[in-house]
Amino acid sequence: MSGLARLKPWEVGDELWAIIEPLLPKHQRRARWPGRKRLDDRLALQGVLFVLHTRISWEHLPQELGYGSGMTCWRRLNEWHKAGVWQRLHEVPLARLRAAGAIDFSRASVDSSHVRALKGGRRPARRRSIGDDPAASTT
């Protein structure tokens, strides 16, 4: 192991944060009535990942970790979802891997059984029930 400290699964390292941070929406603090300072996005993300990794409920997120409240993390998750952050977070690293030729499609599997055949497609054969008489269906 190198001299770097091993990160916990919910902690976001600097290299990963450099990819994620530009994808997050920017928020300007109001000049008049600024209110409470917004929790740092990186801490909120780590709070979200902690809840998802440990499968605890949002309200049980320990304050001692410094990730804010569970409700704050949940709201940030919802905000990012509505802003399309998760879709972009999937697309950006995938594009980088494609550009580097680091994706091996030789072991890929594609299943489109959940997609409707818009131009018809063959109808599946009728399945017989347990009580069906095979001789009766000769028509």
Low-pLDDT regions: none
Query: What gross morphology would you assign?
Result: elongated
The largest sheet, given as strand count, sense and whether it forms a barrel, is: none
- Overall mean pLDDT stands at 85
Series of H and E elements:
HHHH
What are its keywords?
139 residues; mainly alpha; 4 helices; 35% helix; elongated
Description:
It is built from 4 helices and no strands. It has a domain at 8-27 and 35-101. The chain has helices at residues 14-20, 41-54, 70-82, 85-99. Helix 2 (41-54) crosses helix 3. It has 139 residues and is mainly alpha-helical. The N and C termini lie far apart (72 Å). Helix content is 35%, strand content 0%.
Secondary structure layout plus pairing:
Layout: H1 14-20, H2 41-54, H3 70-82, H4 85-99
In short:
The protein has 139 residues and is an all-alpha fold. It contains four helices and no strands.
